[in-house]
Every structure is written in structure tokens, then in C-alpha cells.
Amino acid sequence: MALRYNALVIITKQKPFAEILKGVRGAQSLFIFGCGDCATLCRTGGEAEIAAMAEKLAAEGVTVTGGTVPHTTCHELDVQRIGRQFKEEIGKSGAILVLACGAGVQAVGDSLDKPVISGCDSLFIGNSKRQMNFYEKCSACGDCVLNETAGLCPETRCPKGLLNGPCGGAVRGMCEVDQTNKCVWIEIYERLKSQGRLDGLMEITAPKERRKANMPHKIEQPVRSAK
Amino acid sequence: MSKFQESLSRFCITAEIPPPKGADASSYLRIAEKTVGRVDGVNVTDNQRGMMRMSSLVFCKLLKDIGCEPIWQVACRDRNRLALQSDMLGAMAFGIENLCAMTGDFPTMGDNPDARPVYDLDSMQLLKAANDLARGVAMNGKPVKNVRPFFTGAVINPFYEPFELELLKTKKKIAAGARFFQTQPFFDIPSVEKFLGTVKGLDAAFLIGVTPLKGEKMITFLNEKVLTTPIPAEVTARITGAADQTREGLLAAAEFVNAMRNRAHGVHLMPIGQEENLPPLLDMIEAGK
């Protein structure tokens, strides 16, 4: 059965309203972009949040000229198309408030000729288990070690990103940094042990090739037609 | 061969003295001076518990200048491989020969919680990098001239659960070049004997951690913030029941050290915040020998 929503999301949190107002910098009127994908799932930039934000802004004397929740806000050509669709409303606004992740904010800023205001902080790439429960398991480091670590990522799930076993700091098996998390190295050890694969842990893993994680990343490949 | 390495052929005593939180090291140096010739190495902590202090390498040099044998602790938390290797060359230039590698407490546990956690290398990779550099090979595989030897070691937590995992890590550290290990503090002999049984046959020296207990406040602090296994009740009772708790703590620690003489390679004294008591502790150890 297909999921009703994406299982992997860029997790966002709305900035405090006072901080958003500071970003408005005296603009008298705003157009609002949400996002129908991740920000809707996180309840930071869906239809309901856009409406609530419009109300709060109106109470502060800021006119909202219009708003939209595109299917996704990180598709730059689609954002340009939406820009044409809402030409009049956007034209009347002094700036565009984006309730989406940083990628969405920049897609709008790079595609439309208006000052852009970010209404959210982007937190992490999250796996979801159930509604509003998100867990960071992959940090897109560019140098995947999951084959050596029983499919559990120490680069992401160990705050220190250790590659050769745990630090000495675990408290009753829980991470010293956040004691609500089990030490991922103990989990790796237990999983490998149960699979009879502990011998692999004795190898010393070499330092990471950090250049693979250097930003900004991009991929520009020619599109091949599907056969 | 470093003086510290030589001392491991007999019963060896090392002591921990942190760098000062400030630019004037004289008060710690005065304490260190009184340990010259009485301990075989002085461990210099590296922003321990994530608290900002004077550079551990610089304090090692200051200790070396007054005749101490420094053991340079290097944490992975604050420096990338460029900085670590350049500091290692600096240590060689200063004649600092002993290096003790550790991961380092996470910045959020210390006094600069917004610092970027580095951990470019982990302690195993750091040990390997130090030993490679000491034989003239940098981490990029290129040769480096005019290097000097390092005697490298690490730390072990005897109370870690699951201990099998700590043991596995210890074996990896030995494979990466660790020749000595300093342990978390012990407070009773049966625990030491049990621990030494588990590391028997490993090709490294194990220095048993000893911390004099100053009194009830320190016992609570250690139990809550530092140790993974609480201090035994009878030890707590002995200290808290004494008229002079500080002196009783020192006496208990000295007795413990002397009880280690026929059991372990040596001891590592960690006064944790009462460095001024190091010289009287050494007096008591020597008196009870």
C-alpha cells in the first residue's frame, strides 16, 4: 500500500514570530509561499500554517496579498511558473515570506524578483515513524560506511561521528551527549554480534575523505531517455 | 626511549596536572616542581571535559623546562588532521615524547557549548597518525624529514558496559600503536584484580587510575558527573566518617597505590581539582612504601 506522504523529509521548525517580523523589515505587504511536501508534513508551511501566519501578520498591520502551497517549493522552474500564475498578487507585495526549508526559500529567491524572507529553520533530513516523529539517520556525508557498520550510521547517529567504535562516555548504554539516545556504537556492536559478524569491527577504519562532503554539492548530468 | 617508557620496566607512577585557566602557570608549576623525580610522567589534559584552558602542548613545554616528563594528552574534539599533525611536529621540536590519545568530551558538556565539534580523526586514527609521523610519514602518505619518536598510549574505562566492546576497542588501539593505557579511577582492589585479569596478555602497560577523595562533596560530584560505577559504600564511609576528610582521602589513596605495587604496571594519580594535594600524597605514598 502506498504511503499517503513522503517518508523522508527535510525537517523544519517555524522561527519565533518576533524573528519572522524582524525579517519583514517594515514591508507593508507580503505574499506567502508554503510547501506541499516536507513543510506540510512538519506542519510548518502547509495550508493551515499559511492561513494562521496571514492572520498573525494582519494583526501586526501587514497586508497579505495572497499565498500558495505548491506541490514542492524546491523545484525552481515550477516556482517560476507559479510566479507567473500569481503575478498580480506577488507584484503588489513588498516581499515574499517562505514557510519551507532553506532550499525552498532559495528556490523562491533565485526564481522571483522580490526580497525573500525565511520563516523556518531547517533542521535535518528526517526518517519518519509516525506523524510528527522524525529521526535523523543519514546526513548525506558523501562517503557511506553503512556496509561496515551493520547498516547503522555512526557519522550521523554518533554526535562525534566516530568510525572505530564508541567513545568511553556512554552512560548505561545511552549517549553522553543526549541520554535519550542509545549509543549507536553499542547498537552496531549488538547487531553485528547477533549476526555473527563481529570480526569486521577489529579492522581499523581509515579517516574519512572529508572532501566528499565539501559544499556546495551539485550534479549536472545529461538526461538519457528511458527505454 | 622516553623516560616515562623506561619507567614502565618497574612500578611506574604518573600524575595528572591540568594547564591553568589563564596565562599564568606559576601556581601549577610550583606543584609540578615538587613532583620532579618522584613521578615518572605528568599528564597534561587537553581542555578536559570540554572546558577551555591553556594549550596542553604549551603547558607540556613549561613542565619540560622545569624538569618534568610530560605526557601530552591529545583530544580529537578541537583540531582537524592538519592542526593535529602540525602540533605533533611542534611537540617533537619541544622534546615532548609521550602522547596520550583520547576522543574528548562533546563541546555541549563543557563551557563553550556552541563550539564546532571537530572529531576529524578518532582516537585510533590519531594513534596511527602519531606513530606514522614519528617514523616520517604524514597522513597524506608523503615523507616528513627530521621527525622524532613518540611513545603513545590511550585511556580505558574498566567499568564500560558492554566491556567486551571496550576490550575490542583496546585491542584496536594497541594495533594502532598504543603501548600504555591509563584507566578511570578505581576505589577497591577486587575490581582492579578483575580488570587486570581481563586485559592479561595484551601487549601494553595498564596504569591503574587513583583519585584521592577530598570529602562528601567530591564523592557526590564524581558519582554524578564522572564515574560510570559509583564509589563503594565502605570507601565513602571511611572518608566521610573521618575528622579530617581530606587527609583521610589522601591516606586511603596512598594505601591503594602501595597495594598496587605487586599487582599492576603502575598507577595514574588524578587529583581532579585538588592538585595542591599531590605533593603530600606523594609523601604518604613514599612513607608507606
Write the layout of secondary structure elements.
The complex is a heterodimer of chains A (227) and B (289).
Chain A: E1 8-14, H1 17-24, E2 29-33, H2 38-41, H3 47-59, E3 63-68, H4 76-85, H5 87-92, E4 95-98, H6 102-111, E5 116-118, E6 120-130, E7 133-136, H7 154-157, H8 184-194
Parallel strand pairs in A: 2-3, 2-4, 4-5
Antiparallel strand pairs in A: 1-6, 6-7
Helix pairs in contact in A: 4-6
Chain B: H1 3-7, E1 12-16, H2 26-33, E2 41-44, H3 56-65, E3 70-75, H4 81-94, E4 98-102, H5 123-134, E5 151-156, H6 163-175, E6 180-185, H7 189-198, E7 205-210, H8 216-226, H9 233-240, H10 245-260, E8 266-269, H11 278-287
Parallel strand pairs in B: 1-2, 1-8, 2-3, 3-4, 4-5, 5-6, 6-7, 7-8
Helix pairs in contact in B: 4-5, 10-11
Estimate the helix proportion of chain A, in percent: 25-40%
Give the CATH level 1 class of chain B: Alpha Beta
Shape of chain A: elongated
Strand order of the largest sheet of chain B: 1-2-3-4-5-6-7-8
Work out the count of structural domains of chain A: 2
Number of domains as seen in the coordinates of chain B: 1
The portion of residues forming beta strands of chain B comes to 5-15%
> Low-confidence parts of chain B lasting 5 or more residues at pLDDT below 50?
none
Strand count, sense and barrel status of the largest sheet of chain B are: 8 strands, parallel, barrel
Using brief descriptors, characterize the structure shown.
heterodimer, A: Rossmann fold, four-stranded parallel sheet, three-stranded antiparallel sheet, 29% helix, B: 289 residues, alpha/beta, TIM Barrel, eight-stranded parallel beta barrel, 11 helices, 8 strands, 40% helix, 15% strand
Walkthrough of the structure:
The complex is a heterodimer of chains A (227) and B (289). By secondary structure, chain A is an alpha/beta fold. Chain A has eight helices and seven strands. Chain A has two domains: 117 residues, Rossmann fold (3-Layer(aba) Sandwich), CATH 3.40.50; 62 residues, no CATH class. In chain A, strand 6 and strand 7 form a beta hairpin. Chain B contains eleven helices and eight strands. In chain B, helix 6 links the parallel strand 5 and strand 6. Chain B starts with a helix and ends with a helix. The model of chain B has no long low-confidence stretch (mean pLDDT 96). Classes of the chains: A alpha/beta (227), B alpha/beta (289). The interface between A and B is medium-sized, with 29 and 35 residues.
